[in-house]
Write the structure tokens for this entry.
Amino acid sequence: MRSFRAAVLHAPHTPVSIVPVTLAALKPTDVLVRIRAAGLCHTDLEVIEGSLRYPLPIVLGHEAAGVVEQVGAAARGVKVGDHVVLSWNPHCGHCFYCDRDAPILCEQYLGEGPKALPFDGESRLSLSDGRMLQQLMFLGSFGEYCVVADQQAIPIPKEVPFDRACLIGCGVMTGVGAALNLGAIAHGDAVMVVGCGAVGLSAVQGARLAGAGTIIAVDLDPAKLELAGRLGASVGVNASSEDAIAVARRETAGRGVDVVIEAAGSSSAFRITAEAVRPGGQVIWLGKIDVNKDVSFRWGSLMQEKRIRRVSYGNARPRRDFPLLARAYLDGSLVLDELISRRIRLEEINDGFAALKRGETIRSVVMFD
Ligand SMILES: NC(=O)c1ccc[n+]([C@@H]2O[C@H](COP(=O)([O-])OP(=O)(O)OC[C@H]3O[C@@H](n4cnc5c(N)ncnc54)[C@H](O)[C@@H]3O)[C@@H](O)[C@H]2O)c1
Ligand SMILES: [Zn+2]
Ligand SMILES: [Zn+2]
């Protein structure tokens, strides 16, 4: 039995506490990863704020990189000492959706996901009083260690520093993948990205890599727009003072943009996307709000053959995509350094979430030595 420190949420709207947790013996396909860096994503914040509901207590964190410390007897595709980025989309490989090449809709993934337990339903972690702990998104990576299924630990080149590698596990995969993996962006297209946090800034870079002609970045924060400009955006729009829809039309002879990627997670941003896209164009929603809330649209904004798609994890195939993204970082075509606003200790995680909520950071990354 091993004990280590992890960030546990006991109740919504309360601070996350750093407590010792106990690890059960590894199952045959389990992999134990010593976490070296873990990013604070908006999704973790949504769990803290209660707009995304999971059983509690839970270990938060789902964007991480580390070193494989131990593997179960039947674990495949990964070995002790590998540097890995963790994927939050384990899938069974043989259900209705897996057969149709949609691992993000895997029946087992969607069935077990809301329970925040591994596929076999047995938690690997407990509190010191013996109470069972849930693991957010099959991970729970805000801890010194994380137990995952072998398919979730994806080896990447060791040259990529852990603080940058961890971002690949959620924000970067989601944003770059939305731009590259759906085949939505054609060479020369006009693309708008609404919301320039880690996900949106990654979408801006994905649009650049896809050969977009014009990239319009929309945010409420001038600093994020300035960074979007350095990462590939040709036009910046501050939605608090400028009309993003008018800019979309101005840049496209009145048509509207070919593709809009939303990464803001707000009703007003969803509305902008539908208005700013041209007839026949494609809207990709990545952000989310409370699933029980309504969002209203002007009906006319949804007409004219517009294609609207909500996408999770950028259509990721982690075993293919994570090493690709790591190599794109190493060859300079994908910028990750500037997505890191702060490096913090696990004990500073509540300050990190407060800064994310205030919009002060792109990513705070928890560093473990
Ligand atoms: N689809 C997925 O798989 C997936 C994965 C990770 C995150 N997400 C979601 O994507 C969204 C972005 O995540 P993040 O970690 O980059 O969050 P973030 O908070 O760092 O970034 C959001 C950005 O949107 C901007 N914004 C907010 N309202 C806006 C508006 N009305 N118009 C323009 N800009 C606005 C904010 O200023 C901020 O820069 C969140 O909703 C998150 O839950 C989805
Ligand atoms: Zn995330
Ligand atoms: Zn499946």
